[in-house]
Specification:
single chain; 176 residues; 7 helices
Length: 176
């Protein structure tokens, strides 16, 4: 594609100086990204084929209520090749406080509706209300910070069948 662009520029009589990338392409030199990039990538519905290795990316979608020391221990001790990527990004406290306040209003409304209709209060809702109230208060006092968290697992295998066999063994890793 880049060579087509270069040949079109030459045909159009453009006399501009080639960019550094175009110069490297003309000289045939390779950059660091050229050296570490895979030779080929094929995408399939449930996996990637990356340099003759089948790869599946899994994302953690439900986090435990409490994180204890060594909570990733089962993943670290997994006996197959596994890449783990944890992304943390601090969030603005003011936005989190607004969101938590809105959630408190929703939960309080549900509590009031249940009380009016004579229903027994939901234990899950009461626990959620208390947790959100405690977190909001701690954020307002500056005692806590909120982070956006993403955890991804990259599982590699020589064949799709092996990948399909290994994937279920990771599905309940944090419940062991």
């Amino acid at each position: 594609m880049m060579l087509e662009v270069l040949s079109r520029l030459k045909r159009n009589g453009d006399r501009r100086r080639p960019s550094r990338t175009e110069q490297r392409l003309q000289l045939g030199t390779r950059s660091l990204s050229d050296l570490i990039a895979p030779a080929a990538i094929e995408t399939e519905r449930a996996q990637l084929l990356l340099n003759r290795s089948h790869v599946r990316i899994l994302a953690l979608t439900e986090y435990p209520r409490y994180v204890h020391p060594n909570w990733l221990g089962n993943l670290v001790d997994f006996d197959q090749p596994l890449d783990l990527s944890l992304h943390l990004e601090p969030l603005e406290s003011a936005a989190a406080i607004r969101s938590l306040t809105h959630k408190l209003v929703e939960l309080q409304s549900s509590r009031m509706l249940d009380a009016r209709s004579g229903k027994i209060a939901s234990v899950e809702r009461e626990v959620a209300y208390e947790d959100i109230e405690r977190l909001r208060d701690a954020l307002q006092r500056g005692e806590e910070r909120v982070f956006s968290t993403s955890l991804y697992l990259c599982l590699r295998a020589p064949s799709p069948a092996t990948l399909d066999h290994l994937t279920p063994s990771l599905s309940g890793w944090n419940q062991r």
